């Protein structure tokens, strides 16, 4: 097995895989030379599949068995309102499973979305292996900056199902920044504007040589190139109805074909001012053929889709506001994602930031290349490649001497105004932090007896669901952990959403703030509301509103087997830790005894895909 690490951009529409060979990034092509691989899986009736570019034609031939955009479903509960809307728009069947996660019903076999992503990842792994002539098992996979806990867990699981050791998940914009700035000795602020097929993200970063510090990130998971295509499909349906009086909007196969035409028109309009396409469709159940000549100028396209572009700019405003910056403070603008090839998009972003985007960046490949650069740096500095869990320590500062490291931190504090909470420890072994990701199938985890020092805080909180009273305490910041040998880039991402629990009146008590630098830990004290209560249930929410109903429930934290006692005596400290992968770990301590308290974090819609049969996949 080689030490090569795949850098994988697992996209909604397209995926890209790269590796570093002799210090140079190589984007891996398929046999036909394509460097971009559609995230599409086609299932034959016997369960066999074709994936990537070979699967694309089946979108139109057999939409019910051609799965695309699994990334829009991954790690999300079936019942979430957003998902409900989405589900109706897919031509394949999506059902709810016993665990509350969506399943794709393909010829009666139920696939979790991560099973689909696993197939895409396996395809990329195989392309890389064929290209390199050796087997490869390590990967760094990118995710949208605003992916939540459930989505990150499921993505990691998809990697594992594909037989990959996921060294780390990194955020797509951070990967793009890395590809742009690594080894360039830059000191500047950049905006990464990423408009893909299904999502839009904007991230503002500060690059200080080897440090990539996210200042803010904002995004819209329901804004992408697909929206432009859908607008054009609507126009075509209206034209058909006007000309022939037939409403074709309920015809799945026709819609898929029109989407393909629409996308083609959109792509051609990126090069030409006027595009004409001829479409002919049979009226279902008849022998009547409808012909339509559809012409569209770039101006008309811009008018039809201008508001989609403006929505992305509103999100840019939001990101600047969170970072506390003016547009003029952005030194460089990097465009990522296929939708930035739409001339109107490039023009409006240029106008918004009042500057030209950085030239020479391939918007389709830059994320994957950044992931490959990071993966290679992890291996070069190997003794301790950052494992997915426990991943609390800032361990990519690992490979410096103590003096260098302290100097780096001092400089970092001075430049960013972010302060470490305690002096850096010198070369101590990182504490063993058990992680919620280590949980077995039941999600149970018994905390081990390593409790950081605690300053009891005393503000009385409100009532959580189930009448469990709790107390707050000041934030606990983990001390930066001790490091290993050479220098790899330091990526400092932020929490995209606040995390909190429900209190009286539907207000969210924010435990982890939005835009906090990772890794991040906060502690809270909880007590029971009744004598001899042995279980406390706390619903965990994620979102940026103070009102619970405007946020989404991430899951439930249960403190179980609490030793009975008078309620005022019970004091449990819960530590919420978001690691460098952006994943949440929780641990609890009974402050009376200093012993671990059993805590169980269940993420809504977690699909238990561990039970998903991948034997066909890994053969
Ligand atoms: N030349 C072009 N002109 C206009 N749009 C284009 C062009 N090339 C690609 N696109 C659009 O870019 C989108 C795909 O972008 P990309 O591959 O970056 O998305 P993705 O990474 O799969 O999605 P996401 O980042 O949302 O997960 C599609 O909507 C596609 O139609
Ligand atoms: Mg993308």
TrEMBL record:
GO molecular-function term, one example from the UniProt record: ATP-dependent protein folding chaperone
Keywords assigned: ATP-binding, Chaperone, Nucleotide-binding
Residues spanning the membrane: none
SUPFAM superfamilies: Actin-like ATPase domain, Heat shock protein 70kD (HSP70), peptide-binding domain
Chain spans, region Disordered: 413-446
Pro residues composition-biased segments: 422-433
Family the entry assigns: Belongs to the heat shock protein 70 family.
Name of the protein in its database record: Hsp70 family protein
Organism field: Microvenator marinus
């Amino acid at each position: 097995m080689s030490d090569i690490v795949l850098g994988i951009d697992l996209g909604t529409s397209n995926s890209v895989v790269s590796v570093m060979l002799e210090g140079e990034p190589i984007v891996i092509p398929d046999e036909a030379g394509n460097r971009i691989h559609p995230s599409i899986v086609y299932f034959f009736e016997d369960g066999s599949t074709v994936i990537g570019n070979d699967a694309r034609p089946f979108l139109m031939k057999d939409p019910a068995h051609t799965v695309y955009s699994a990334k829009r479903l991954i790690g999300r509960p079936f019942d979430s309102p957003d998902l409900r809307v989405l589900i109706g728009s897919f031509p394949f069947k999506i059902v709810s499973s016993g665990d509350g996660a969506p399943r794709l019903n393909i010829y009666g076999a139920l696939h979790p979305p991560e099973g689909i992503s696993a197939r895409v990842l396996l395809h990329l792994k195989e392309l890389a292996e064929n290209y390199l002539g050796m087997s490869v098992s390590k990967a760094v996979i990118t995710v949208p900056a605003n992916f939540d806990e459930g989505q990150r867990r499921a993505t990691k699981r998809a990697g594992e199902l594909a037989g990959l050791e996921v060294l780390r998940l990194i955020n797509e914009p951070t990967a793009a920044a890395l590809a742009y700035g690594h080894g360039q000795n830059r000191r500047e602020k950049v905006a990464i504007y990423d408009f893909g097929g299904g999502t839009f993200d904007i991230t503002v970063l500060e690059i200080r040589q080897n440090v990539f510090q996210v200042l803010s990130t904002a995004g819209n998971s329901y804004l992408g190139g697909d929206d432009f295509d859908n607008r054009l499909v609507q126009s075509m349906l209206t034209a058909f109805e006007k000309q022939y009086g037939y409403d074709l909007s309920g015809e799945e196969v026709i819609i898929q074909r029109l989407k393909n035409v629409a996308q083609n028109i959109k792509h051609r309009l990126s090069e030409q001012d006027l595009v004409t396409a001829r479409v002919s469709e049979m009226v279902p159940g008849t022998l009547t053929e409808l012909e339509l000549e559809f012409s569209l100028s770039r101006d008309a396209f811009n008018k039809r889709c201008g508001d989609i572009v403006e929505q992305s700019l509103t999100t840019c405003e939001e990101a600047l506001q969170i970072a506390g910056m003016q547009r003029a403070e952005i030194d460089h603008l990097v465009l990522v994602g296929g939708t930035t090839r739409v001339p109107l998009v490039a023009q409006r972003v240029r106008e918004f930031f009042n500057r030209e985007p950085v030239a020479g960046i391939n918007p389709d490949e830059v994320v994957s290349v950044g992931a490959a650069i990071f993966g290679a740096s992890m291996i070069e500095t190997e003794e301790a490649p950052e494992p997915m869990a426990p991943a609390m320590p800032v361990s990519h500062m690992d490979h410096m001497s103590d003096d260098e490291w302290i100097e780096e931190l001092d400089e970092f504090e001075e430049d960013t105004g972010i302060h470490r909470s305690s002096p850096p420890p010198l070369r101590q072994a990182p504490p063993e932090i058990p992680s919620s990701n280590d949980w077995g199938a039941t999600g149970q985890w018994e905390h081990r007896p390593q409790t950081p020092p605690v300053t009891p805080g005393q503000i009385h909180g409100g009532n959580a669901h189930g009448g469990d009273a709790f107390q707050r305490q000041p934030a606990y910041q983990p001390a930066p952990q001790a490091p290993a040998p050479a220098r790899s880039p330091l990526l400092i991402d932020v929490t995209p959403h606040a995390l909190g629990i429900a209190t009286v009146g539907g207000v969210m008590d924010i435990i982890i703030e939005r835009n906090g630098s990772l890794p991040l830990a906060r502690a809270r004290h909880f007590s029971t509301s009744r004598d001899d209560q042995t279980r406390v249930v706390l619903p965990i929410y994620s979102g940026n509103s103070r009102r619970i109903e405007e946020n989404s429930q991430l899951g439930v934290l249960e403190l179980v087997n609490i030793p009975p006692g008078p309620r005022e005596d019970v004091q449990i400290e819960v530590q919420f830790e978001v690691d460098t992968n952006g994943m949440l770990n929780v641990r609890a301590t009974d402050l009376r005894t200093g012993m671990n308290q059993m805590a169980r974090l269940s993420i809504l819609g977690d699909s238990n895909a561990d039970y998903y049969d991948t034997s066909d996949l890994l053969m």
